[in-house]
Amino acid sequence: MAPMDRIFGILLIVISASSFGTLPILTLYAYAAGMDALTILFFRFTLASVLMVGLLIARREPLPRGILLFRPIGMGAVGYVGQAFCYLTALKYASAGLAALLLYLYPVFVTVLSAALFHERITGVKMFAVGLALVGTALTVGPAGGQLPGVLLAALAALIYSVYILVGTQVMREMSVWQSSTVIFASAGAMSGMLMAVQGPHLPATAAGWGVVASIALIATVIPVVTFLAGLSRIGPTNAAMLSTLEPAVTVLLAALLLGEALKPLALVGGGLILVAVGLLTRAEMVQPEGKPEKD
């Protein structure tokens, strides 16, 4: 692969991680504009699914049909909505930086669940990484005080996301990421729309609020998904996963610059340990012994 193509791939993953990192900040702006979590999710996923359909048409890929639809629909309607709702609600009780760092516990949950459910062997490196993540979590959370509900919701979001990934591993063997993403976004939009209708929508009170809605769908959803997939093909899954740990760092930085949030030094150290653990788990997962299937 040409060096320039590899550099371009790195740039794409950095754009993806940075774009995902804007979600907590944009969500807080949406709350300030009078929206609630379900209304945000409805517009986020519905607008994103429309854009993904356009990409499918441009790529000349058909929508999946028949029995193949069931699992991605479940991933979107249950997994993605559940994870996103917990994460967005956590932002009401905990700082954006803290919630973003705790969400990155999901690789640890994936490792533990894979061992418990699929009897995958936990190597010494993985055990060390899990222990490191637990220490990092303790330092990051510290005496949470009034942030405890947010801490629990962010951790629950990470747990739900880990199950989502395990299910998604199977789905990716049946259809392309573009097809599955479109179905997942559409079903997530439909489910959050039904839930929103039950409690009543909370629409933006200002034109700027509608701009935030569009930004969440485009900047924090479609752009990071597309750039991640494009970068993945150029630099590979290990490097892409490593660079993706930039996401919570972007959230912490934006929260400090735009919202005046500041994590305590001990929390930053803990967050750093979590990200180091994620890096160790990623490398351990990608170095597969002969005969062992690789994860997507």
The count of helical stretches stands at: 13
Helicity, in percent? over 70%
Number of domains: 1
Order of helices and strands: HHHHHHHHHHHHH
The helix/strand class is mainly alpha
- Whole-number average pLDDT? 89
Based on CA atoms alone, the radius of gyration comes out at 19 Å
- Unreliable sequence segments: 289-296
Entry summary:
The protein has 296 residues and is mainly α. The protein contains 13 helices and no strands.
Task: Characterize the structure shown.
With 296 residues, the protein is an all-alpha fold. The chain has one domain. It has 13 helices and no strands. It has helices spanning 3-21, 23-32, 37-59, 70-90, 96-103, 106-118, 124-141, 148-171, 177-199, 207-235, 237-244, 246-259, 265-286. Helix 3 crosses helix 10 and helix 7 packs antiparallel against helix 13. The longest helix is centred in the C-terminal third of the chain and has 29 residues, at 207-235. The model is unreliable at 289-296 (pLDDT under 50).
Strands, helices and their partners?
Elements: H1 3-21, H2 23-32, H3 37-59, H4 70-90, H5 96-103, H6 106-118, H7 124-141, H8 148-171, H9 177-199, H10 207-235, H11 237-244, H12 246-259, H13 265-286
Main attributes of the structure:
mainly alpha; 78% helix; globular; disordered C terminus
